[in-house]
Amino acid sequence: MIEPYCGLAPLPAELIARWNLDPALIAALVVGSSAHLGMVARSSQATSRKAYVAPLLGWALLAVLFVSPLCALTSALFSARVTHHVVLVAVAAPLLALPWRRSKLADLLARAAAAVFILHMVLLWLWHAPAPYAAALARPVVFWVMELSLLGSAVALWLVILSPVAPLGRTLGLLLGSVVQMGMLGAVITFARTPLYDAHRGVTTAWGLSALQDQQLAGLIMWVPASIPYLAVALVLLARRLDRPMIAHEPAR
């Protein structure tokens, strides 16, 4: 049996030492972040140091997700895996997408907004189905297909959402749709009567949870906290629209 990419499930006393120092991963993070920041520097949008804040935070979050002991914890707890995925698609992805919200790529994706949304939704549901999820834990190659497809489709969706020229109604619809579909997936996981993910059977008890309790916690995380970034962006967009000054027309004399 091939060991999961993040390693075997750790005991609580082992977790602090379970950093993932995979040279290939670290090299990919360094090269990817350097290339991304280099493109931001060459972009006409990089008018101040603020342009670098979002991508730096996004790459820092990717490092936390894949290098820190959180990676190992996801082998033990499905709730940790869901937290990992929520941060990946709802926090890291928009931070990485933000510098390109006015790019030609964002405009191109905006023309297929519905297809981008459906693709991301299908991938999210697919990789949280028991069989594909088990395959991702069993084979590192499939694991990276899961992670990169979730991140890539999320970045594409956020490029559509964050585009300043996108109609507000469509943007709010995409945000609401994201909240609804993640809530539905969370509800399915929460209300399942039996453990769905065999990889987490027998390894959650050391953390004070049964496999079913861990699964229910994961569902609640996807159901409630996962919606916060989408709702926050929706509120910001609405606030900006309300703050726009109304053009006053002087009465004709």
From TrEMBL:
Keyword Plastid among record annotations: no
UniProt keyword annotations, A-Z: Cell membrane, Membrane, Transmembrane, Transmembrane helix
One cellular component term from this protein's GO annotations in UniProt: plasma membrane
Taxonomy, superkingdom: Bacteria
Full protein name: Cytochrome c oxidase assembly protein
TM stretches of this protein: 24-41, 53-76, 82-101, 108-129, 141-162, 174-197, 217-239
Localization per Swiss-Prot or TrEMBL: Cell membrane
Membrane topology: Multi-pass membrane protein
The UniProt record lists the keyword Membrane: yes
